[in-house]
């Protein structure tokens, strides 16, 4: 890729060698799941917020006509959302200026099967990074369309910060993110499968005769329990007044009592609000500020790993985290001694 930077004397040619992306995780602040549609999918209503747990992706051209994934990603490369995102991006340009291969090196920091959106974050970072690296100039909406073939939450990660999300995840209504609170996330020793969680939810409701039809639909046909304005109003209220629920929680807590125990641990440590994120397995507590969350993480550690019955009932990795106003940070490496681009390191979509 050739970039031209104008100066008073001449044009200098810069060659972009790679794009490095820090891709941040998310939590679900509430997750309403509506009845399964005839398509087999469920509409959701949720508020997503980025948090400072991250994967790192290094994306560079390889000119060998292949998609190469490097790093320990927890599955075969061809099964990863990173590979599928790269494949679908390349398919967009098969008939015009085809991409001659890409290598993506991944360092994982977001745990898998945790409800933190690592798969979607990585897919979005791949799409955004390749769009930058190969200078294809696709819009966020176009990238989100490609991402919809890969994972339901890719669209959110292309906007980032905080957003109300509906449909299968393709409807994203960005809102001004709050960054004034702190978080403690508990990651248990097990992972949670999203398809299995949905199947368990359907069975749970069928046995009990529970229906979760939407109260209304908007003009585009998206299911609504609470309108966007009301969801945002609750989000802006004091944390102690948050009434957001996650419909997966009673289903998963029935199968594993440790979910309830982890939430109780967070409440004992002073959390103003606790919940499950996504379809699990992580739970989180919200605290008044980052300092309170850091202190609470130490309290959780003492309660969890100290002497007593609780120390023997379950184990969990304790993470003190912060909410973010961005989904990723992008930096560039170019073939030159000094990069004079004003945007050589800049936050991606959703930053403030």
TrEMBL record:
<keyword id="KW-0808">Transferase</keyword>
<keyword id="KW-0414">Isoprene biosynthesis</keyword>
<protein>
    <recommendedName>
        <fullName>4-diphosphocytidyl-2-C-methyl-D-erythritol kinase</fullName>
        <ecNumber>2.7.1.148</ecNumber>
    </recommendedName>
</protein>
<keyword id="KW-0067">ATP-binding</keyword>
<dbReference type="InterPro" id="IPR036554">
    <property type="entry name" value="GHMP_kinase_C_sf"/>
</dbReference>
<feature type="domain" description="GHMP kinase C-terminal">
    <location>
        <begin position="246"/>
        <end position="296"/>
    </location>
</feature>
<comment type="similarity">
    <text>Belongs to the GHMP kinase family. IspE subfamily.</text>
</comment>
<feature type="active site">
    <location>
        <position position="26"/>
    </location>
</feature>
<dbReference type="GO" id="GO:0050515">
    <property type="term" value="F:4-(cytidine 5'-diphospho)-2-C-methyl-D-erythritol kinase activity"/>
</dbReference>
<dbReference type="GO" id="GO:0019288">
    <property type="term" value="P:isopentenyl diphosphate biosynthetic process, methylerythritol 4-phosphate pathway"/>
</dbReference>
<keyword id="KW-0547">Nucleotide-binding</keyword>
<dbReference type="InterPro" id="IPR006204">
    <property type="entry name" value="GHMP_kinase_N_dom"/>
</dbReference>
<dbReference type="InterPro" id="IPR013750">
    <property type="entry name" value="GHMP_kinase_C_dom"/>
</dbReference>
<dbReference type="Pfam" id="PF08544">
    <property type="entry name" value="GHMP_kinases_C"/>
</dbReference>
<dbReference type="InterPro" id="IPR020568">
    <property type="entry name" value="Ribosomal_Su5_D2-typ_SF"/>
</dbReference>
<dbReference type="GO" id="GO:0005524">
    <property type="term" value="F:ATP binding"/>
</dbReference>
<comment type="pathway">
    <text>Isoprenoid biosynthesis; isopentenyl diphosphate biosynthesis via DXP pathway; isopentenyl diphosphate from 1-deoxy-D-xylulose 5-phosphate: step 3/6.</text>
</comment>
<dbReference type="InterPro" id="IPR014721">
    <property type="entry name" value="Ribsml_uS5_D2-typ_fold_subgr"/>
</dbReference>
<keyword id="KW-0418">Kinase</keyword>
<comment type="function">
    <text>Catalyzes the phosphorylation of the position 2 hydroxy group of 4-diphosphocytidyl-2C-methyl-D-erythritol.</text>
</comment>
<feature type="domain" description="GHMP kinase N-terminal">
    <location>
        <begin position="81"/>
        <end position="161"/>
    </location>
</feature>
<dbReference type="Pfam" id="PF00288">
    <property type="entry name" value="GHMP_kinases_N"/>
</dbReference>
<dbReference type="GO" id="GO:0016114">
    <property type="term" value="P:terpenoid biosynthetic process"/>
</dbReference>
<feature type="active site">
    <location>
        <position position="153"/>
    </location>
</feature>
<dbReference type="InterPro" id="IPR004424">
    <property type="entry name" value="IspE"/>
</dbReference>
């Amino acid at each position: 890729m050739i970039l031209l930077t104008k100066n008073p004397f001449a044009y200098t040619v810069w060659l972009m060698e790679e794009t490095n992306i820090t891709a941040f995780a998310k939590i679900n602040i509430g997750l309403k799941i509506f009845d399964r549609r005839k398509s087999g999918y469920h509409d959701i209503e949720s508020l997503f917020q980025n948090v400072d747990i991250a994967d790192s992706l290094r994306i560079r051209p390889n000119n060998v006509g292949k998609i190469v994934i490097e790093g320990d990603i927890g599955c075969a490369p061809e099964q990863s959302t990173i590979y599928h995102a790269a494949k679908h991006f390349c398919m967009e340009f098969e008939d015009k200026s085809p991409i001659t291969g890409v290598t993506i090196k991944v360092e994982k920091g977001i745990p898998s099967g945790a409800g933190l959106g690592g798969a979607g974050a990585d897919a979005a970072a791949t799409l955004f990074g390749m769009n930058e690296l190969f200078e294809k100039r696709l819009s966020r909406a176009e990238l989100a369309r490609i991402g919809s073939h890969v994972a339901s939450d890719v669209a959110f990660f292309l906007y980032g910060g905080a957003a109300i999300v509906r449909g299968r995840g393709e409807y994203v209504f960005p809102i001004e993110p709050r960054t004034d609170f702190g978080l403690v996330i508990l990651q248990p020793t097990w992972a949670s499968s999203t398809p299995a969680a949905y199947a368990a939810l359907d069975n749970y409701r069928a046995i009990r005769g529970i229906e979760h039809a939407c109260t209304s639909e908007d003009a585009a046909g998206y299911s609504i329990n609470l309108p966007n304005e009301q969801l945002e109003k609750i989000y802006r209220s004091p944390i102690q007044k948050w009434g957001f629920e996650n419909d997966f929680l009673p289903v998963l807590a029935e199968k594993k009592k440790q979910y309830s125990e982890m939430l109780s641990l967070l409440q004992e440590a002073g959390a103003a609000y606790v919940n499950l994120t996504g379809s699990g397995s992580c739970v989180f507590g919200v605290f008044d500020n980052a300092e309170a969350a850091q202190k609470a993480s130490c309290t959780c550690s003492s309660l969890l790993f100290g002497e007593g019955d609780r120390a023997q009932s379950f184990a969990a990795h304790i993470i003190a985290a912060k909410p973010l106003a961005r989904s990723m940070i992008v930096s560039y490496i170019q073939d030159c001694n000094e990069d004079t681009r004003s945007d050589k390191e800049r936050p991606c979509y959703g930053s403030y």
